[in-house]
Amino acid sequence: MELLCPAGNLASLKAALNAGADAVYLGLKDDTNARSFAGLNFTPQRLQEAATLVKRSKRKFYLTINTFPQPGQEQRWHQAVDLAVNSSADGLIMADISLLDYAHSHYPEIPLHLSVQASVTNLAGLDFYQKQFNIQRAVLPRVLSIKQVKDLAKVSPVDLEVFAFGSLCIMAEGRCQLSSYVTGESPNSGGSCSPARYVRWQEQGDNRLTRLNEVLIDRSGIDEQMGYPVVCKGRYLAEDAGTAQFLLESPTSLSTLELIPELAAAGIVSLKIEGRQRSPAYVEQVTRVWRDAIDSYLAAPAQFQSKKEWLSALAKVSEGQTTTLGAYERSWQ
């Protein structure tokens, strides 16, 4: 079972490798990937440095080219594919059909991983991408229950990867219409939900008001632990409620430590840590915990239990210092 960790820059990549990641995923310093934050990602020169470090460590790296090209600008995405292949990437993470076709037809030897942005959740979808583009792996969206993951793993024609830890997303994985509605910028082309330049905090008595593009999305206590403000994790008033509540999603982090035995038994090949936009310290902390947890499971599968020190370490870097199993435990799905 692979431990796949985020690398938003060279420092995070080194932190992930030193802490025990089997593989890292990263993106180029442009909008060919869905995390095109200022100050993050890799220039062609940095990509070569990253490739050298990864190969020297005998690990793997996958290049994320998971946005959807704008009309007339496809060439830049094609150049990203060319660059990845020339950099000896171990795989490409992609969602757009035209890009999958370009990569498959020009470089049939490069492994293709279907990005979570494709939002494929069923056998027919996996079959389609495997037959058309020979994908070797698919990243499942964070909307499936553990039973649904197991059922799909039994029949999947390709390897499956799931998110193990990090931020949650209730939309169709990266295509947040809520953020686009409030800010006017699409996460697909703008780099993220809730672009930082639209976020504003204002203290008012004992409260802190959080606004996104002047839309009030939360009112919290001054000392209350909060994650990064996004629309779906704001607090809102409903017609039949007197106080504002988390109506869409709570500000917590996904953590599937306790599901490691079930995911391994289901044949999941890769556990993905979310957070290319997070700090090297976050990457190091989370990678180290998950390395220890996976190794503990592999050493004695029948005796595996989550350790208090793992949970404590992860809680410190979780949104709201709270973790959840998210959709994995929704039995009604």
From TrEMBL:
Q: Pathway involvement?
A: Cofactor biosynthesis; ubiquinone biosynthesis
Protein name per its UniProtKB record: Ubiquinone biosynthesis protein UbiU
Q: What PANTHER family does this protein's entry cite?
A: PEPTIDASE U32 FAMILY, UBIQUINONE BIOSYNTHESIS PROTEIN UBIU
Cofactor names from the entry are: [4Fe-4S] cluster
Question: Which residues of this UniProt protein bind [4Fe-4S] cluster?
Answer: C169, C176, C193, C232
Source species taxonomy = Bacteria, Pseudomonadati, Pseudomonadota, Gammaproteobacteria, Alteromonadales
Q: What does this protein do?
A: Required for O(2)-independent ubiquinone (coenzyme Q) biosynthesis. Together with UbiV, is essential for the C6-hydroxylation reaction in the oxygen-independent ubiquinone biosynthesis pathway.
> Which HAMAP family did the record assign?
UbiU
Pfam families named in the record: Peptidase_U32
InterPro entries in the cross-refs? Peptidase_U32, RNA/ubiquinone_mod_enzymes, UbiU
Entry keywords, A to Z: 4Fe-4S, Iron, Iron-sulfur, Metal-binding, Ubiquinone biosynthesis
> Transmembrane residues, as ranges?
none
Q: Looking at the record's lineage, which domain of life comes first? A: Bacteria
What interactions and quaternary structure are annotated?
Forms a heterodimer with UbiV.
What family does this belong to?
Answer: Belongs to the peptidase U32 family. UbiU subfamily.
